[in-house]
Amino acid sequence: MRLFDPRDRETTGQTARVYAIFEVLHTAVDFLAAGLFIVGSVLFFSEATKTAGTWCFLLGSICFALKPTIRLTRELRLASLRRVDRLAEKAPEAPRDLFSERRR
């Protein structure tokens, strides 16, 4: 199990949902960071709004710092789901037909 390796992807309904949720979150943070930097840049043109612009830059920077955190959290969550699925497959009391679809 390697993090960030697209070859190590077993797609199930649950992993697809987790992946999609984290991609939407990552994209939203991207837009928020970009918006904050644009607003901060505009606010920096006036002395009266420089402090607000500085706050926008700080918040935008925090958003940019969140992006790798979101990706790492996604990968750890997916790795956890795969680990649980593998353990469930090995359980002697697991119904065999539950996992036979994925092996096809």
UniProtKB/TrEMBL annotation:
The chain positions of domain YrhK read: 21-75
Q: Transmembrane residues, as ranges?
A: 21-46, 52-70
The record, for InterPro entries, names:
YrhK_domain (IPR025424)
- Which UniProt keywords are present, listed alphabetically? Membrane, Transmembrane, Transmembrane helix
Q: Which domain of life is it from?
A: Bacteria
Q: Name one Pfam family in it.
A: YrhK
**What protein name applies here?**
YrhK domain-containing protein
